Amino acid sequence: MKDDSPQARRRAPLIFPRHVARRAVTLGCVAAAGPFAVLLMVMASGPLEPVSVGLAAVAAAIAVACVLLLASALRPLEKVAAEAARVAPPGCGEPADEAIVIARALDLLGRRLEAAMRRGDPALLDDPLTGLPNRLAVMRRGRDEITRARRKGEPLCAALFAIEDFGGFAATVGPAEADAATRVVAELAVQTLRAYDVVGRWDPTRFVAILPEAEIEHAVGALQRVRGVVAEADLGRRAGRAAAIAAGVAVLQPDDATLGDIVARAARALERAEARGGVEAAPGPRTRPAFLTSV
Hints:
By secondary structure, this protein is an alpha+beta fold.
């Protein structure tokens, strides 16, 4: 009686590769025995010639080597079948359909991977509140911009900005109004900066901006314009406290490895800006990055 249990179906894909390997080894052994049979027939018919013995030995050695090589080549099929049995849909494990099972399993894995990528991309790269690129996306873009700036020998600035005393602001106006102000600040920053500047959300209270081809003084001016536009919007004033932003700006230096190195200096400048109000530039040389022919 045929065993149609789930365990039997999961074992079935292993039958095909094992049968192939066994049959191949059997045929190889028969082929290897052929030269020996010929040699015995020659010995029975008369005296042996040295050349005939040598050719028979060479043929036998080649046949044995082919058998060993074929067995080694077929051994990975068992691993492929085992993985196919693990992911194959139920009911596809009949011994006659093992090749189909493997193909369907690989197709299933591909579709699962594609679906996971579609589900993961928005969650991994977009900030859910503002729709801006999140920290991971900005870091990736920063890597590309740093490479481009060094290849072309152009300046690159990064700015970190936030609503001043965001914790106190949120406590005064309430969480809903604070979220609304955060979204408006994001929109105003995108509208005010250049089209090829990158604005993202660095963490729950701070934004980051990447400004390619901008010297430090130009970046400071750009963030001052953003500060002015936000002030004109009167965010939170009806709830008793108007929102204002502070910003810190830093320029790419030759020893910066990632965007995080630039942002770390901008963060220290932001701390000074929050204490004084306005926009602060990180101290340091304002040199252009070293020109590189390749990265």
